UniProtKB/TrEMBL annotation:
Taxonomic placement: Bacteria, Bacillati, Bacillota, Clostridia, Lachnospirales
Any one GO molecular-function label of the UniProt entry: phosphinothricin N-acetyltransferase activity
Keyword Transferase: yes
Name of protein: Phosphinothricin acetyltransferase YwnH
Keyword set includes Lipoprotein: no
Gene of this entry: ywnH
Keywords of the record: Acyltransferase, Transferase
Protein source organism: [Ruminococcus] torques
Length: 156
């Protein structure tokens, strides 16, 4: 398994994986996610690939087929009188093809993201997990992550 920056040739496969992730979210929160859709269009993905502040990393097999991805965003703590300024690498989305799970692809992607974050001078790697996505929570805890804050909602 090789991990590299995503390229335009990866877009069709990334779209397939985005559908898998969306379905997980739609199963958990059918009140807000629309099954059969994706977070990005082909054109939006092509633009994202050009954005150095939002790197996308892919794990590819020996045939250069994308088996997983990590969408990331470089973020800086805004100026505040009471907080130290720092950079974070936010994982907006991490997915491993459901047919390739259990092969440590997610672990490899996460370790790669951590390494990239260090090279970029980041203080931390962060992400959000939807309540109810217990497999993701367990995976990230296994990778050494811990809860930083909780966002709560009241549905009207």
């Amino acid at each position: 398994m090789i991990i590299r920056k995503a390229e335009e040739k990866d877009i069709p496969r990334i779209l397939e994986l985005l559908k898998q992730v969306l379905q997980i979210h739609a199963d958990i929160r059918p009140d807000i996610f629309i099954p059969g859709t994706t977070k990005y269009t082909i054109d939006e993905l092509a633009e994202l690939l050009k954005n150095k502040e939002k790197p996308i990393y892919v794990a590819v097999d020996e045939n250069d087929v994308c088996r997983g991805y990590a969408f990331c965003q470089l973020q800086e703590q805004p100026f505040s009188n009471n907080m130290v300024q720092f950079k974070s690498l936010f994982i907006d989305d991490l997915c491993v093809d459901q047919e390739a799970r259990g092969q440590h692809i997610g672990e490899s992607l996460f370790e790669y993201v951590k390494s990239e974050a260090k090279q970029l001078g980041c203080y931390e790697v962060t992400l959000n997990v939807w309540a109810g996505n217990t497999p993701a929570e367990k995976f990230y805890e296994k990778m050494g992550m811990r809860t930083k804050e909780r966002q709560m909602e009241y549905i009207l």
